User: Fold this.
Amino acid sequence: MIEVKNIHKSFGDAHILKGISTTFEKGKTSLVIGQSGSGKTVFLKCLLGLFTPEEGGIEYDGKIYANLTDDEKRNLRAKMGMVFQGSALFDSMTILENVMFPLRMFTKQSKSEMQDRADFVLNRVNLENAHNKMPSEASGGMQKRVAIARAIVNKPKYLFCDEPNSGLDPKTAIVIDNLIKEITEEYNITTIINSHDMNSVMEIGEKIVFLKDGLKAWEGSKENIFKTDNEVVTDFVYSSNLFKKVRQMYLEEKG
Amino acid sequence: MSYLHNIGSYFLMIAEMFRKPTKWSVMRTLILKDIDDLIIGSLGIVAFISFFVGGVVTIQTALNISNPLIPKYLIGFATRQSIILEFAPTFISIIMAGKVGSFITSSIGTMRVTEQIDALEVMGINALNYLVFPKFIALMLYPFVISIAMFLGILGGMAAVIFGGFGTLEDFITGIQIDFIPFHIIYAFIKTFVFAFLLATIPSYYGFYMKGGALEVGKASTTSFVWTSVAIILLNYILTQLLLST
Assistant:
């Protein structure tokens, strides 16, 4: 579980995060949504420990990040998996080497043990025959699946995804969303996804945190997001015609 | 102020490069790969340039010695001194700033743009140690490249003398042996080690801390070439003053 307590983050005069508090539970897929520039990426980077908040704190299973020693922080980071927006695969390595990379860095496993584990996770993301391909030879969807495999290969406790289905066609995006949800439940990990894709919210959002101008404007479940009267949220959610029609039909059905 | 900021950040980067070392089994692979990319991969161009520039230095020296009172062996002597003292360590280093430096800046810069460096940092890996330290170690073999440049430069000069008819082989060999001061070789290799350090770290700095996209990677490569060259030329002057002037 990750608990965020009143975090503030600024860059020069720009106050990006203005006191955000929330909780992300284990075994659940949580989505942080909001418009571009709302502070989602800064928020995620604070959770990853890449940015240090000026005020407030973040607790990982009861341990306050700011109070950890450098070694403890390093150990905690080794338990985090991250799926970047652009996949961020190491382009000088094959797909198999990319997936084995966290194991080579953080475990003392033999080469065959690492290979077995990498084979297992690559099979888990339905990439049985791509081991020796270079990332540049893989499609966008394949690269995302490799990034997920790399993120989970070292059995992380926390999985972070920055817009995991951006640039993908709707069908592949749903496959990636469902894969993340299945993995979250299967391995009982805390998953946080940055997104502005309402389809993802509908598919996998068990908890949704809505950010607006560096503040938490709303939080709740995917069921509640369509019922809320919060104007900031409804403006965002119903900005697409499709969702406007869905809401109209829902309200008509309810009378 | 931005110059001071860059100089400060550069030295902080060097200090950080030695902290939190990467696992040796991984580091060994990275060093071998960088030796292949930076050292072995540069031998061809260094050999080609050294041989022909050595020849040109010899021809120009020969053509400028018109006084019959000046002995012909001076061609070999001048070639040796030019190549060992300046051409091999300094001129080749400027070329390497273009070849190796641009490669280092663009490869690390591309990793920055495509979030690969962020991926390393998220995993808790010291990205500077992982990326820059192997290049620094690989370039400690740079004196090997410069030795080859010295040898081939003198060989090129010898070929130019023989095939151009500027003198005899005996005169040239006498020239390259006469008044030989072993400290000149030590001086050349001290410079080479310093330049190797600059070649590994300045381009890495510009790649690692770049911001932006593909266009900025290109700009960073150009900037890194300019500043690596400036640093080489300045340190060349300082080291020559310190080591050769009595």
About this structure: The two ends of chain B are 36 Å apart (CA to CA). The mean pLDDT of chain B is 93. Residues 22-244 of chain B form one domain. Residues 51 and 150 of chain B are 9 Å apart (CA to CA).
